[in-house]
What does this fold into?
Amino acid sequence: MNSVIGINIVRFIILLLAQVVICNNINFFGYINPYIYIIFIFLFPIKDERLVFLLVSFLLGMMVDMFSDSGGVHAAAAVCLAYSRPILLKTSFGMLYEHHTIKFSNTEIGSLITYITLGTVIHHFILFVLEIFNISNILLILKKTLFSSIFTILLSVLIIILFSRNRK
It folds into this structure.
């Protein structure tokens, strides 16, 4: 088995378990929740097949939904994040993405934080719009998106830095 596939399978399982066992039980002030499972989508290999990536992202979101009893909102948000990832990579990394030479362990921290921030805000906004599904609650949607995004971004960047090699 290819070592990249093995690493991604382990990452999938660990992030899924961390999400459903630890993070789903964190709820600060009733609206701040971390969703670290999206780290898998951020770190998935760039050169791999796009359809496989979208299907695996859907599967990850669906598994979180099954454990959270949330009816598909995580699957939808995960697929939207996976679908928008090429734009996020190009925006955050520019020419490195154009030439498919991005190694997250060697990238500038500012580019990595931009990438994680944009992706997290997109994911969380879609997640909370679908979860609340009422335009009259737009302020609640924005509040949950903002505060959960901040918490998720901090945890995600910290986790990526702690578990990556060769960080600048």
Remarks:
- The radius of gyration is 15 Å.
- The chain is about 70% helix and 0% strand.
- Residues 138-163 form the longest helix (26 residues).
- The CA atoms of residues 105 and 166 lie 6 Å apart.
